[in-house]
Amino acid sequence: MNICYYCGKYIERQDEVEKEIPLHSKGGVQYVTRKFHHWCEKEMAELLDDEIASKESDYWFHKACDKLYEYLEIDDEGKKIGGQYAVMRIRGMYAGTFVPNGKNVKWRKTGYTYEEIYVTLVFCEAGIKARLRQFTVNDDKHLINFIMNIIAENINSVSKKLNRNKENKMKLDGVKAKVLDEKFIKKNEGGRERSRVSQLFKEEENDKSSEDWYDDLF
User: Fold this and answer.
1) pLDDT given for residue 75 in this prediction
2) pTM above 0.70?
3) What are the residue ranges spanned by the domains of the chain?
């Protein structure tokens, strides 16, 4: 009997599709084949995409928090002074507001991504430290707001460079795929085709080189 893995209902033969899905267990992730209604398979795929995007977002959120924590002092219990406020400011920048005011911002995207916030914190690190040497902070909130103001001043330009960097990498990957798909290198005209391929890669690398600052940050 064919039962849909997603909804648990019977599947008519004309509605049946099979798909590999990840199953999580103590031993790790295993991919298994399951049967679905074709419309249920689409819904399941969207949920899996959302899960992947959510995990990636959580990864960059923690990276951004850890980077901002580097500027905070530690109290007698070993906790970062102002740590909770730092989290609120980062979540606020993600949601496009000062602080989220208790609202759930996990699925909202009206500000900047956590990756963009983290990269800007790294990009501005030298500037933040230089300005802090000339600035007196009153308390932890004053310090965090001072740093986040610097981030706000720079994040738009960093975001544009980051996105351009990703686009160039995708463009280069596309050229590599094109080289393989069209089989430019042929035995009977190897010299000319190799030259053609070499020129394509040279042009892409030239476009990419000016945006390699993102890779150099790490």
Assistant:
1) 75
2) no
3) 1-53, 171-216
